[in-house]
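User: Second chain of the day. Same drill as before.
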Amino acid sequence: MADMNELGFTFAGLMVGLIVGLTGVGGGSLMTPILIFFFDIKPYLAVGTDLLFAAFTKGAGTLNMARQRLVHWRIVATLCAGSLPAAALTLALLQHMGPAEERVQHIMKSTLGLALLLTSAAMLYKAIKGKTAPTALPGAELEVATRPRHGALPVLFGAVIGVLVTLTSVGAGAIGVSVLMILYPRLPIARIVAIDIAYAVPLTLLAGLGHASMGSVHWSMLGYLLAGSLPGIWIGSMLVHRAPDRLIRSFLSLLLAWAGSKLEIGRAHV
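Assistant: Same format as last time:
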């Protein structure tokens, strides 16, 4: 039975990695519900493990984006100014309440359901709005495009995402990209995606290590997930230009809406 679980974790990592490579959709919104629904992993273990899973996979993505000079580090720092303190406060609250406590599990599942529904809506928004977003800008215009509509909004947004990611491992993906498109409407979509991936690395690492300090990480499961995901991401990136992106995104949006609705309905019946 243990061998079947190991194979299942590796296969789940492969499938999620493949989808991340094909579409860029955040692994957290896919992996956490898979672990909860298909492997019956407790929410606190699923979230804690997936946070470190995301830190590794997004770290590799950030290195690639940085080599292409797509990451705007000033915006990343501004977002982290909100997200990291918020994540630390959320971790302190979880430590005080006890992550394995029933009421905490209830909060995490409820918040996860909401996050998945928001991610589903954000994916549809990105698919529609992304077509009209600029693909490149000259240097002078790029400097203007990196100014947010309001100076405090990126910090506030970072704080909200910091809480959401720490509780659910979901948020720094489709939701993050959609909000950044609103905050920085003139910024090319490739740079928005790069910023979203880059600021998620310290956030997921901090949140993941915080969960690990509370015993909320399944280390062997993490190893199997990574063993499957890394080749999956590579294969997906090789097939990205041949895959029906809109069809895949539409299917994933419906799948996430179903998972979010199931969690919310289950909460209502508790």
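The radius of gyration is 18 Å.

User: Great, on to the next one.
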